[in-house]
Write a structure and sequence with these properties.
Mean pLDDT of chain B: 85
Number of domains of chain A: 1
Helix content of chain B: 40-55%
Structural class of chain A: alpha+beta
CATH class of chain A: Mainly Alpha
Mean pLDDT of chain A: 83
Strand content of chain B: 15-25%
Order of helices and strands of chain A: HHHEEH
Shape of chain B: globular
Number of helices of chain B: 26
Distance between the termini of chain B: 72 Å
Shape of chain A: elongated
Largest interface: A-B, 20 and 23 residues
Strand order of the largest sheet of chain B: 4-5-10-7-9-8
CATH superfamily of chain A: Winged helix-like DNA-binding domain superfamily/Winged helix DNA-binding domain
Low-confidence stretches of chain B: none
Radius of gyration of chain B: 38 Å
Number of helices of chain A: 4
Structural class of chain B: alpha+beta
CATH topology of chain A: Arc Repressor Mutant, subunit A
Oligomer: heterodimer
Number of strands of chain A: 2
Largest sheet of chain B: 6 strands, mixed, barrel
Radius of gyration of chain A: 16 Å
Strand content of chain A: 5-15%
Chain lengths: ~110, ~900
Amino acid sequence: MKIGAFEELVLLAVGSLGENAYGVAVKELLKEKTGRTPSIGALHSALYRLEDKGCLNSSEGGATSERGGRRKKFYTLTAAGKNAIIDANRIRLQFSKNIEGLNLGLDES
Amino acid sequence: MKKHHHIPPRFAEKILNQIIRPDLAEEVLGDLEEKFYATLVKRSSFRARLNYWYQVLNYLRPFAIRKRSGASHSNPIVMFSHNIKIARRSILKQKMYAAIKIGGFSIGIAACLLIALFIREELSYDKHYADGDNIYRLVGAYDEPGESWKGVTLPAIIKPLLEEGFPEIEKTGRLIIFDFFASGNNQFRPVNEMQNTYEEGFVYADPETLEILEIPMVYGYQTLALSEPNTLVISQKKADKYFPGENPVGRMIILNENESNPYKIGGVMENFPSNSHLQCDFILTLTGKEFWPGEQSDWNGYVYDSYLKLRPGSNPVDLEEKLLSIRDNHIVVDYESRGDQRAGDIKEYFSFQLQPVKDIYLRSDDILDNNVPHGDLKVVWVFGAIAVFILLLACINFINLSTAKSANRAKEVGLRKVVGSYRSGLVSQFMTESLVFSFISFIIGALLAWILLPYFNLLSGKSLVFPWSAWWLVPGFISSIVITGIMAGFYPALYLSAFKPIDVLKGKLSRGSSSSKMRGGMVIFQFTTSIVLMICTFITYQQMTFILNTKIGFDKEQVVMIQGANTLGKKRAAFKNELLQLSEVMTVTQSSYFPVSGTQRNGDSFWKEGRSKLDKGVGSQIWWVDQDYIPALGMKLVSGRNFSAEMASDSSAMIINQTMAKQLGLEDPVGERITVSWGRSWNVIGMVEDFHFESMKGDVEPLCLVFGQYSGSIVSVKVNTKDMAGTLASISRLWEEFMPAQPIRYAFLDERYARMYADVERTGKVFTAFAVLAIVVACLGLFALSAFMVEQRSKEISVRKVLGASLGSIFNLLTLNFLRLVLIAMVIAMPIGWYVMRKWLEDYANRIEITWEVFAITGIAVLLIALLTISSESIKAALINPAKKLRSE
């Protein structure tokens, strides 16, 4: 399972939003945590890709008036998605450890 | 608060909805809208809208855009292939109607294509000069109220005059293109050969003419090829004929066995393109040429056409103004010096005009330049109109049949609408169908045009080729297919797609009759067009027969003209005597002048002797003929006597025609004396009845015959024989004895006469062809409509038969409606045809009256054709066993 850097962020955001992960919420969270403002198109593109790869599940929720009566689509992490996050983190850690003089600050936390 | 007053830009939403995958739409639009309102809280509504647009545009990513395949009902490609499938099915289901639609269409398209090729050729004349905008032909215009003419010929001296005084003129080149000394036709041979060949297409020209008309050279140079006296330029075609595979520059040529005056080939020019107004194979130089002493500097020989090349940027209108100085300082002076009364008129009414070279072919209607081939702008327009009309007729067939058959499609339309088809979808379905028809018809039509092109060339006297390889062919075809398809399919598509599903499925829709008025109107239009064309054809033919057979003042039958007889020289008398020994030969006459085209012409001013300083001169031709001319051609002397070889005084005798006498104001011309502008006088010894010697379009013009024995280039033999071939053989044998080196060349006077009216004949044939096409297309439509009507009413007919209706009454029932339409068309068409043809006939001085028979015969013919067309189906319907039709219910 290979996922890109942005996809990884989206996975993390979906995972941390829990039950409430839908497009706009993910976007807001990404902005809050990373300062990035991806366009909705870019975000959806990543979400659909992740769903295709089996990292995410989606289900439709209730309609709200601020969406013009349209339903939300909620995403949840699958086991594969969690594995993907773990994989990505492990690869990152392995590399980071080999870099001399790089203090990731992981020990203190 | 704000958010209730602002909504996301609906247009952006719509675009997105059109483009993205439908399964994504809800989520995406929802997110977008939520984001929009979120932005609205923090920022201005403008920013929110801008952001919305930005997000929409940003959404156009490959993953989100609709895929090109799949089962989506709104996918245009799928719909298109579906529509084509339906079109194919409906063609196969209704083979006869489809064949009629396609057949009519193909005929219309073939006719259109042919005419388009023709028009294209006509409009392409003289467009090939690189510097075409600066090339002009000099026209002399005389515009006195009551008498106006335009001519192109001027005396030789015009060239130095133009070259001296007018800095705008870069080059001046003269040209002689009618039969004048060696221009026209000659016996031709290279100096080292014995055998003469008759060649046509000789002209005289200045070296500058080659440059002005940008005549491309194969060998030699434009500037040098004609710069020495007695040089000529020949065309590539003729070079290949006489000097195959070599460069003939420098070779010597003998014309008409005149060995003392040989010509040297100075160059070879490319063959003239077919769309050049000038067509010739031999250009003889005018360098050092003087046709008679003083000819180059006096004002007598009005034989030269002049072409001018202006310097870039000069204004032709200004130049025309300046050219008036030539009139005032030279022409008027010349008239005055001769004491000619017309000097004042010339000063007042004569002017020069510059005609752009590209206008020469199509826009020289009022200019006298008989030897330049011309197209007729009117014919171009008429042809164009005919093409459009025939195509319209074919489109109408399509429309009529489609709407008539609407009942059969109504259920389909209703059902489609019930299961959710939009009207636009139905329109595009029917449009696709008509495009398919148009496409098939275009293919067939193009093939048809290609096959018919040789025949059309024969008809129109053109040499058109089908431009298979032209770059514009494919785009042109595609756009024509689309345009015709839309033209024919527009109304049916709107009509058929407008059905209300409830009415249709309940069976309320009356069977295809709701637009019968419209269809009737269209049938009337079709037949009106056809009838007008028929009337035109009819009257053209009548006029032609009239011209060819009416009393023309001479007897053109059984006269053989032996051409090129000037080479006989001193043997003329002997040849004539030998001819007269043949039993079939009645009379033999020699002259260069005959009352048919292609023989010599001239023109001069004549007066009653002593009046030349007082009266206006009468413009007349003067023909040298011998004593046998009048009897051989069966002309009639009204008064006086014929020439006589025995009377020495007849060398100054003259016979004039009635028109000449009338114009000179002579009641009894015999005994009067007549003077010509160059000073000679003759005694009038007789008056000949007017005969036509120019095109019969005009009135008979004045003519003087003077005595010249053993002169002229044509020996005309009046024969009396049943076995023309045998007579010709004996004449040919005799000729061979006299002139072994020159093959005999003969023509029949009546054929030459008919050739003068070739254009009338051509118009007639072309009209016939198109009238036939129009009526065929119209009848196809009528046939299909009647067949359909019969089909629709077959049950009704059966019931009527069961109840005892007679065959006749059923026939009437089915045909009368259609005949009524044809009758209405007749009422409309006849005044139109009458008016159009009256206008056309106005061009002819000798013309037929349009009589009621024309209309009666056309009317009956059309009715019969229509009746025949309708009746086959009607009779079939009337004869059918009613049980067969009623059995099913």
